[in-house]
Design a protein that fits this description.
By secondary structure, the protein is of the alpha/beta class. Among the domains are: 108 residues, 3-Layer(aba) Sandwich (Rossmann fold); 79 residues. It is built from 13 helices and seven strands. Strands 3-2-1-4-5 form a five-stranded parallel beta sheet, with helices on both faces. Strands 6-7 form a two-stranded antiparallel ribbon. The chain starts with 23 loop residues before the first strand and ends with a helix. It binds ligand SHN and 1,4-dihydronicotinamide adenine dinucleotide. 1,4-dihydronicotinamide adenine dinucleotide (NAI) binds next to helix 1. Pathway: Porphyrin-containing compound metabolism; siroheme biosynthesis; sirohydrochlorin from precorrin-2: step 1/1. InterPro entries: Met8-like (IPR028161), Met8_C (IPR028162), NAD(P)-bd_dom_sf (IPR036291), Sirohaem_synthase_central (IPR028281), Sirohaem_synthase_N (IPR006367).
């Protein structure tokens, strides 16, 4: 019997989209790993301070600090535990990416005392959270984690997922965001929540990713005209004959007759049709052969 409720699988981490906008992050270190952390936290709009002596900065970190200027504060100094309390004061998150695990552990203890969440790149058991292998397509974010067990496998799994993503997934989500905002304006009442959600689910399911990605504001208005009557207009109804020439239909043609971009096997449709023909041909040959034997 199928489980009624999802099974609890202990031993994982909590995968969440932590909102860091404007939060103060201290990053200690300036090598390649620190440069990777920088991308992660700046993608989340954090206020970032980098602490690392100038002589220790790698090429990417130098570029980020002095050319791209995405680092909000740069402190040209080494972290020392003697004045550690003063150094960590006021931060919302601390990240270390240094080649000194004793110092990493000390920074970790300091952060705990100050109740600041901390990630220590070289001492996984001490971390409050791990980083993962990431995909970013506009508003879409995918993270793969192996709980620290196999970072390389996290990266290769991420690459597999990346290849499976529809090309237009980012713009499609942007457009859905706009449509949702327009719907909230048209139907702002809290009590309409369940109807709003049902309607959004049905619209998202009725339009393909390519169709959503190419939706115009005028088409959104047309879809919204169906809201009061609880009607869901799909792309063919909104676009009429133009739909047949639209990129989404070209995409559907590819799905029917092309090859799968992930593993390279032919589309299930053409494979199915081809398989049926091949099956029929084989059966005919078999029948012909056996009937000849019978004769
Ligand atoms: C715990 C964690 C740190 C944290 O977040 O706290 C951690 C820890 C460590 N990694 C080490 C090594 C390698 N790390 C990578 C790659 C990545 N590592 C990443 C994350 C994490 N690595 C966190 C857990 C992630 C998870 O859940 O799986 C990724 C996913 C994201 C990112 O770094 O931003 C990024 C891929 C990004 C991408 O390409 O998409 C490779 C492969 C490569 O470079 O190609 C190798 C060499 C192969 C190997 O060693 O396996 C070592 C040294 C071990 C030693 O000294 O022997 C430690 C420390 C230790 O394990 O003790
Ligand atoms: N993805 C991950 O999480 C991975 C983690 N690691 C671990 O992460 C750590 C950092 O790796 P890399 O960037 O390759 O090392 P790296 O040796 O290139 O860089 C270390 C950096 O720390 C700085 N540093 C050292 N002591 C400091 C101090 N007291 N205050 C401020 N800055 C200080 C150095 O100047 C240098 O910029 C290593 O310990 C490594 O084992 C390694 C590979 C992957």
């Amino acid at each position: 019997m199928a489980e009624k409720y999802p099974k609890i699988c202990p031993g994982g981490g909590l995968i969440i989209a932590w909102q860091l906008k404007g939060k103060k992050v201290l990053l200690v270190g300036g090598g390649n790993v620190a440069a990777g952390r920088l991308v992660n936290v700046k993608d989340a709009d954090a206020h970032l301070t980098v602490m690392c002596p100038h002589s220790g900065l790698g090429a990417e970190m130098k570029h980020r600090i002095f050319e791209e200027k995405v680092v909000d504060a740069y402190l040209d100094q080494t972290f020392s535990v003697e004045n550690g309390d003063a150094l960590v004061e006021g931060y919302d998150m601390i990240l270390t990416a240094i080649d000194d695990s004793d110092l990493s552990r000390s920074i970790c203890e300091l952060a705990r005392r100050h109740k600041i969440p901390v990630n220590v790149a070289d001492v996984p058991p001490e971390c409050d959270f791990y980083f993962g292998s990431l995909i970013r397509r506009g508003p879409l974010q995918v993270m793969v984690s192996t709980g620290g067990k196999g970072p390389r496998i996290a990266a290769s799994t991420r690459a597999t997922i990346e290849r499976a993503l529809p090309e237009n997934i980012g713009p499609a989500i942007e457009k859905v965001g706009q449509l949702r905002a327009m719907l909230r304006k048209r139907a702002p009442d809290q009590k309409q929540g369940p109807k709003r959600m049902r309607w959004m689910i049905d619209v998202c399911d009725a339009w393909t990713v390519d169709e959503l990605a190419t939706m115009t504001p005028h088409e959104m208005d047309q879809i919204l005209e169906g809201w009061e009557a609880g009607k869901i207009k799909n792309a063919r109804q909104v676009r009429g004959w133009a739909w047949w020439a639209a990129p989404s239909w070209q995409g559907s043609k590819k799905a029917l007759f092309g090859t799968c971009p992930v593993v390279g096997y032919p589309s299930p449709w053409s494979a199915g049709i081809g398989g049926a023909f091949a099956g029929a041909a084989a059966a005919t040959v078999f029948f012909a052969a056996t009937s000849r034997l019978r004769r």
